[in-house]
Amino acid sequence: MRITHKKGYADGPFGQLHYMTAGSGQPLVMTHQSPDSMVQFEPVLGLLAQHGIQAIAADIPGYGMSDTPDHPPSITEYAQMVPAVLDHLGLQTANLLGHHTGALIMTEAALLYPDRVDKLVLNGPLPLTDEERSFFKGMMAVEKTWTPKWDGSHLAEQWAFRFNAMPEWTNLAAFNTHFVHGLLAGEQVYYAHDAVFDYEHEAAIARLQCPTLILANTGDAIYAQSRRTAELRPDFAYAELQGGSIDIIDEQPEAWVAAVAEFIESR
Length: 267
Known about the structure:
Layout: E1 6-12, E2 15-22, E3 26-31, H1 42-50, E4 53-58, H2 75-78, H3 81-89, E5 94-99, H4 101-112, E6 117-123, H5 130-140, H6 153-163, H7 172-183, H8 191-198, H9 201-207, E7 212-217, H10 223-232, E8 237-241, H11 248-251, H12 253-265
């Protein structure tokens, strides 16, 4: 049976927030990597719903179809999207899940609004050393130079940049989808990554008190940081998928959903 996906808009901290829902049951609010959109979760919405989960995916402000902030927000400001979505949907509490950039946003939301969070899933957390932070900031600074060019060469440049972020990709269709959705952020594409590398996820992880799952895949570009998170918080639940890439949700949707659902359903 095909489960209908419903889309809508909520009033958020920077204007309207675009979201999509499927199913009913325990609510799970999900935020995506950057630059991308909630399209990242389309392959798993119906599968989550089959587990009795109300799957809710939202575009981060400035990405997808959510309104763009008038300044580069901090992770704390991005996290304000969570109570906005919950209030709009009439939910007092929910489980939260974030992938890459979304993992930092949901961590901060869990710290800011602990009474509204049941469980937290960090799919690709990012605790960094000082050297790693400096490296990533330098590498991602190129996003501030991306601007349209009449000959279309900016598209090839950005395609190559994403392609070189991983040693190996497995799903060309998924790669193309997420590349295209990343373009929707325009010249403000750097906003989220600026916030990511100004945020000390390692310190925030240490402060978390809600039940938390670290969800990793061995082919992820930041797999080492997931393992580091497990060392920092051995009390967290941990699940690991084999292989894959940054686009693990497209590559292994059934296995991904099984890991998430098992944690959400556990006592």
